[in-house]
Amino acid sequence: MENLEDKFRDHKFVCPGCKGKLDYSNDLFSCPQCKNSWPLVEGLADFRVSKDKYWGEHPEEEIDRLILRCKQVGWSQALRDFFTVSDPEYYDSIIDKMRANWHFLVPLDKDARILDAGCGWGPLSFELASVYKEVIAFDITMQRLRFIDLRRVSEDLNNLTPVCGQVNHLPFPDGHFDLVIFNGILEWIPVMESKINPYLAQLQALKEAARVLKKSGYLYLAIENRWSVINFLGFKDAHSHLRFAPLLPRFLADIYSRVVRKKDFREYTHTYWQQEKILKEAGFSETKFYSPLPAYRRFQFILPLNRVSRTKFFVRHLFRPRDNLQVFFSRIIRLPFVLNLTKYFVPDFSIFAKK
User: What is the mean pLDDT of residues 222-231?
Assistant: First the structure.
C-alpha cells in the first residue's frame, strides 16, 4: 500500500484561497503567494479554511472511539459493532454499494479522475475507486476521512486519496477532474458557510466544481426537491425538521425557523426551475434530471424526467393496487405522471450537469 505522504510529494494541490501552486516540505503545504500553510494531520492533508466546528451526525467523542476501535479490530467489525444496534439504517447507508449505481449514466472511461466532494464515510468513493483510475474522497470532517484511510489501506486501494477541506474552497487546479460529485451536500453548504447569503454560498460551491472540471466534464448532483410531494403532505423537512418550511418564501421560512429553532433557515433546496437556473449561472451548459426512487440516498430505480413515456410506463407497472384504498392512492400518485408534472413534484433529483 502506497503511503499517502509519499503520494503528496507529487501532489497537484493549489491554495484554497488564491489558487496558487503550493510548495510541499516537512509534511506541510505552503503558498508562496499568500503565505498561508496547511499541515498533514495523521498523514492526511488538511486544507480547511475554518476549523471552528465539528460537522457530523454523531458526537465527535463517539466517532473518535469508533476510529480507535477500527485500528484494533478492523473497520468492518468496528462499524458493525458501533452502528447495527444504535443506527442500523445509517450503517446500511455506509456500506451500500447501490448508492453509486448512477455512474453508468455518465460517459466516463476507466482513466477518469473523480472528486467525491462531501464524501461522508465514502460509500461512493470506494465503489467508484473499484472502477475508475483515481478518486479523491473530500470532506470537511477529519474523523470520517481517518475511517476512509483505514478502510482504503485494508482494501489495498492505492487510487483512493482522502483529503480534508471545504467545497467552497477546493484545493485543486483548474480542469483537473472528469467528474465531481455533490451527493446530498449542496443544501448543507449555506449552514457551513454561515456568513454568506445561502444562495450565493451554493453558487460559489457550484462554480468551484465547474472550475476544477475538465472541459465537457460532469457534475453529479443529488438533492431533495423543494416542491416534493412529501413537503406538500406535511412531513417534516429532512434538514430543518420543520413542516412546510421549504415551500414557504425564503423570508417567511427564515421567520418560522427563528421562532421555532432559534436560528436562520439556510438549508436551501430548489425547485426544478431553480435548480436549472443556479447550475446555468455556475457555468454548466447542459443538465439532465432523473428521479431516484424511493430516494437518492438509497434508491432502487432512477427515472429520466425528460422521457415522459418511460416514466408513465414505469408508474403503470410499479403500482398494482389490491384494495379500494390502494386504488385511491395509486390514482393520486399517477396523476402528476399523466399530466406530465412529474419533474416538478418528485421527492428527489439526481442531476447530471455538463460543463
Answer: 93
